Amino acid sequence: MRILLVEPNALKAEETCRHMERAGFTVDHVDTGHDALGMLKSYNYDLAVMDICLPDVDGYEVIRVSRVARVPTPVLILSDEKAATAKVKAFSTGADDYVTRPYESMELTARMQAVIRRSKGYSEPTLRAGQLELCLDSREVRVQGRLVHLTGKEYVILELLLLRKGMVLTKDAFLNHLYGGMDEPEMKIIDVFICKLRKKLQAAGGGQLISTVWGQGYVLRDDGAPFTVPATPSGTPVQAS
After folding, report:
1. 30 φ, ψ to 5°?
2. Looking at residue 224, what is its pLDDT?
């Protein structure tokens, strides 16, 4: 899962990034409200973790503007401010959760995962498709109850496909999610990751869950039925394989 951390204090940002990365999150960091808005409008984050006190505009304004712009990214406030009025204002502005410093890293991770699950329509930490199960908390993947060993990149790709189940994801979306615009390899690496992931899931009895949508990308569905994306302008549906 990809996180945007909005924190002006370098030491706090370093500490929080370290906690998040240990928990398996991919983290982008900015230190101003204007940069946060630019990133939120440009990229599809699973969650924004934001301080209230920013050097240009406060966190409340960032949330307000992003909501007006219909940015769907959920927001968790991480702040030193413990006053009830600050929390009430944050929630009324559109924040999804509020955590005060000092925080326990395990609690912060759990709260982040809970917000992300709710935003994707899941009430529990396990994502499912057919015989496949992925636990967001433990990062374990099982097919028919048997553990499937994935590399870090394979896990992130599968997690993204499950969180966006039924949606066609482009190779650009995968690259952006995996590398965040930093030192991105050639796009064909996504085909390699998908190929290896498919083989592991099929070998475990997961079947053909991941389909190729020619000219567009990949999609994960619940069963083995063919998946058809909306028709092209010429009226011809695009078939996934």
Report:
1. -130, 160
2. 47
- The answer on 144 and 62 residing in a single domain is no
The reported pLDDT for the residue numbered 223 is 58
Judgement on whether residues 135 and 201 belong to the same structural domain of the protein: yes
Residues 95, 203 share a domain: no
Do 103 and 86 fall into the same domain?
yes
Q: Based on the domain organization, do 77 and 52 belong to the same domain?
A: yes
The structure tokens listed for 164 are 């966006």
Number of H helices, E strands in the chain: 8, 13
- In whole angstroms, what is the distance from residue 75 CA to residue 5 CA? 10
- CA 167 – CA 159 distance, rounded (Å): 13
Regions of the chain with pLDDT less than 70 = 122-124, 180-183, 223-241
State the alpha helices, DSSP H only, in the chain. Answer: 10-22, 33-42, 59-68, 84-93, 105-120, 152-163, 171-179, 188-203
76 plus 153 within the same structural domain: no
Give the separation between CA 79 and CA 99, rounded to whole angstroms.
7
